[in-house]
Amino acid sequence: MKNPFRYFKTSPEVIRLAVMMYVRFPLSLRNVEDLLHERGIDICHETVRFWWNRFGPMFASEIRKRRADKLRAWPQWQWHLDEMFVKINGETHYLWRAVDHEGEVLEAYVTKRRHRQAALKFLRKAMKRYGQPSTIVTDRLKSYRAAMKQLGNEGSQEVGRWLNNRAENSHLPLRRRERAMLRFRRMRSLQLFASVHSSVSNHFNLERHLNQRDRFKESRTAALAEWRQLAA
Questions:
Q1: Nearest C-alpha neighbor of 103 from the set 187, 228, 201
Q2: pTM to 2 decimals?
Q3: CA atoms within 13 A on the CB side of 96
Q4: Which DSSP string do the residues of 146-184 spell out, in sequence order?
Q5: pLDDT tens-place string over residues 109-153
Q6: What domains appear along the chain, each with residue ranges and CATH number?
Q7: How far apart are CA 149 and CA 139, in angstroms?
Q8: For residue 211, which phi and psi values (nearest 5 degrees)?
């Protein structure tokens, strides 16, 4: 595999740091520029934009491939499906998202409508990558039932009040990023950022509220070390 950083004068460590800061935290391009300037790294915010567009999908793909291999080796217990309303140039679009029982985002898919065809394509895309779960928790949108009826797993659907809170809560980090980016302007940009953001969030999802301090620090160090090895 060729070195993806071979034509860049900046070190890979700085590029990884800039991409991580922009995707992981609710920072603007200029915020990342200022934070790197405090560390003695003088770059333009457009450089951060170029790095994120060039390397963000590459890092996310590598993370997603590793996690998909691990998840496919174990039976999928429960998925939570939900859709976000996103405004793009004043027009409402829908970001479909699948979350597992631990709160990690499995798939994100942008459409203009919420009909059966969109739900079917979203489900097929997620199941092709991760396999079929035992239970799928959704809201009362009829498109889910119609799509799963066509797939033949209608009996695995669960619908109920408060059952889908895990999926609802998983929208919050992306909503914070949406506000920092002053919303999205194209479907393609939303799809790209949502997929990259999901992978990076999963990578640094350390469940701080469940682990003791020592365990959390070990997991955080391991996650950072693994991040620094991406595309190495």
A1: 201
A2: 0.86
A3: 26
A4: HHHHHHT-GGGEEE-TTTTHHHHHHTHHHHHHHHHTTSB
A5: 999 999 999 999 999 999 988 888 999 999 999 999 999 999 998
A6: 75-185 (3.30.420.10)
A7: 16
A8: -100, 150
